[in-house]
Amino acid sequence: MSATTPVGPAANTPPPAALARPGRRSARASALTGASSASRPPGRGRLTRPERIWGRIFIAPPVLGFALFALAPLLFSCYAAFTHWNGLSSPVFSGLTNFRTMAGDPQFWQSLWNTLFLMIGIPIGLAISLALAIALNRRMPGRAAFRVIYYLPGVSSVAAISILWQWALNGDFGLVNELLRMVGIDGPNWLAEKTWVKPALILMGVWKGLGFSTLLYLAALQSVPRNLLEAAMLDGAGAWRRFRHVTLPMLSPVTFFLVVTGIIGGAQMFAEINIMTPTGGPEFGSATIVWYIWQQGFQNLKLGYATAMSLVLGALIFLVTAFQFYLNSRNVFTVE
Fold first, then answer.
1. Per-residue pLDDT reduced to its tens digit, 245-254
2. pLDDT tens digit string along 178-200?
3. Helix-strand-coil split of the chain, %, nearest 5
4. Contact 198/266 with Cβ under 8 angstroms?
5. Among residues 313, 308, 314, which one has the least CA distance to residue 80?
């Protein structure tokens, strides 16, 4: 054994240069850290004080707008639903009176049924929109002009469309009945008969939303990967099987979006009813839930009762939408 080789505990003792005081970094480590901080590109570190101030200034308008025009009214509505309030005097707390009145109100249930019935137009409109999108996706004469014409209802105001259809559905000189007379059919007084007022409104709603739905379906059809269609064709799949097993699943995100937005929009249908059937239709046959809320709140000055119905409507829309998202999560179509 060499005399310079350490023996015993001294063999495991680190050299003095390697010792460092606990809690303190060496000068070299500090220099390296400072060099890495200096070489750090801008935007990777913490925000400076002026940047934080300007960031708060820029996000303040939307946050304040949400707090003033969404959060505060929602909180007040949760209180007003449990009060007797006519909008002119202070609300008087009444507990669950408004909800008990709602449960025994036949017009509330009738308006809710009318709203659900009018949503029959959602699948009808989606089917017609998909057929039009498939036709527009092919090469055909006048395709560009037709793409402009079919979308005109989408850029028209609801009031103008309602007045147009109120005239078209007139029982005496309306365009719809005139067309029916040409084929030997005596058309009904659409907006004055309980049997026909809801089908008339469904017809108008389908026509009004046709352009927007067709536009989305057309864009989705043009984004379907052609290699999937060609692979299905090489496997011997016909046109219907390619559409059913390739094209239709690829359109499911658009269909899901249109169904959800259609349900939310249909549950809030008001302007069309107020213009075409301002009294709620024959035997209250066309009154929607939002129209009934408006009537109770602003015509009968029962704002507490109207607010309670609004909360129930909001809860129903939330539950239906959440159920739609749940179903969509279980039927996701992906391409590996």
1. 888 989 999 9
2. 999 999 988 899 999 999 999 99
3. 70, 0, 30
4. no
5. 308
